[in-house]
Specification:
The chain is α/β, with parallel strands linked by helices. The chain has 13 helices and eleven strands. 46% of the residues lie in helices and 18% in strands. Helix 6 runs parallel beside helix 10 and helix 12 crosses helix 13. Bound molecules: nicotinamide-adenine-dinucleotide and glycine.
């Protein structure tokens, strides 16, 4: 069994990654010596695919599961839905010995994790991510939260799961657009941390998109989780290093904001944002033209939707100035010194940023 560990002292936890491991969830959960009560939180799309199966397998294994279903979609990451879950969990007599299972994509992981972090001052929780984005990013590292009408992810906590179970086989039911959006985050890891991984992705991106070889997909997910686990172990609360995981996200978030979060999937906006960050790295005389071309070619293979023509550079700069990660020391840019090596930089002139935005808006 492919196992990684996120090393965080007494909050360390394993990540299991393997095709068809989902079927073994009941026996993996059996390893906990306390509490047989499991509350599975899932969404309305994932329930018929995997929720009912998981419920039955836990019950057949002598455990005591309950299933709580929320509507699929980002709107469920709200205080209202969290409150409904608190009510259902309390009515079902949840205790600190119970465990909450987040079964779904990043929306469910963030929401269920937030509920687990806050209910009874902390109920243990387990991540079973079912989208590529959640398997390589959101299920690892303990960022949990919900949205506020004034902005995304503004209410939340750092609360680590006790276990992460990743089954690449469940990606077979995921729409290809979601696969490609998740792959933007995969490519991100190669850019910031691993040139060999970049070469591997460049050579096999079509096979990965089409999930032709699940052992290859397992390998890819594992590399991403390993990189993320190492970063989180060094900087759990994002006081420094963890910011490198935001490569491409400054412009990406601005693109999501100016399109009202209803045009791009997150990974698609990040794909464009990474093109901007790559161009900035080129203007900064870090990566050369050849690296820029190869990196942009890999992103282009994900075919992110074009940026709508009415979006202006000024609108993006304006949206970036309101980025919640901007500090009074100015905008922190994650650049690449070369492919596979990040640089954290607060000295990027506004003119360069404008040029990079022009690059992504005009496509050259
Ligand atoms: P999502 O959870 O909305 O899932 C995307 C869609 O796929 C949904 O309709 C869902 O029902 C469906 N789905 C899930 N698994 C499926 C499967 N196996 N087969 C078929 N359909 C399936 O979106 P997402 O992209 O997984 O996550 C996005 C969320 O993650 C955002 O809210 C974002 O803020 C959050 N996020 C959190 C972190 C973090 O560190 N906590 C990091 C990145 C993103
Ligand atoms: N998704 C970025 C992080 O977990 O820090």
């Amino acid at each position: 069994m492919n196992k990684l560990v996120v090393n965080l002292d007494n909050r360390s936890y394993p990540i299991y990654i393997e095709p068809a491991i989902f079927k073994e969830t009941a026996s993996l959960l059996g390893q906990f010596d306390s509490g047989k009560e499991f509350f599975i939180i899932t969404d309305s799309n994932v329930r018929p695919l995997y929720g009912d199966v998981l419920f039955d397998s836990l019950r057949n294994a002598g455990l005591s599961p309950q299933l709580l279903v929320v509507p699929a979609g980002e709107h469920s990451k709200s205080l209202q839905v969290a409150e409904d879950l608190y009510t259902q969990l309390l009515a079902a007599r949840v205790t600190r010995q119970s465990k909450i299972i987040a079964l779904g994509g990043g929306v469910i992981g963030d929401l269920a994790g937030f509920v687990a972090a806050t209910l009874l001052r902390g109920v243990p929780f387990i991540q079973i991510p079912t989208t590529l984005l959640s398997q390589v990013d959101s299920s690892v590292g303990g960022k949990v939260g919900i949205n506020h009408p004034l902005g995304k992810n503004l209410i939340g906590a750092f609360y680590q799961p006790q276990l992460v179970i990743i089954d690449p086989l469940v990606l077979k039911t995921l729409p290809i657009r979601e696969i490609k959006a998740g792959l933007a985050e995969v490519i991100k890891y190669s850019f910031i941390a691993n040139a060999g991984f970049f070469k591997q992705l460049s050579a096999s991106i079509t096979d990965i998109i089409n999930l032709n070889d699940l052992m290859l997909v397992q390998d890819i997910i594992s590399t991403c989780c390993q990189i993320k686990a190492e970063v989180v172990a060094k900087d759990e609360r994002e006081s420094g290093l963890r910011a490198i995981l935001n490569f491409g996200h400054t412009i990406g978030h601005a693109l999501e904001t100016v399109t009202n979060y209803d045009y791009f999937l997150h990974g698609e906006a990040v794909a464009h944002g990474m093109r901007g960050a790559l161009y900035l790295s080129f203007l900064h005389q870090y990566i050369n033209k050849n690296e820029l071309t190869r990196a942009c070619a890999l992103i282009a293979s994900l075919e992110p939707p074009a940026i709508p023509t009415h979006i202006t550079g000024e609108a993006l700069v304006q949206a970036m100035s309101k980025d919640k990660k901007r500090s009074d020391k100015g905008q922190l840019w994650i650049l690449l010194q070369k492919i596979g090596q990040y640089d954290m930089n607060r000295n990027v002139p506004a003119e360069m940023v404008k040029e990079a935005i022009d690059f992504i808006l005009t496509g050259n």
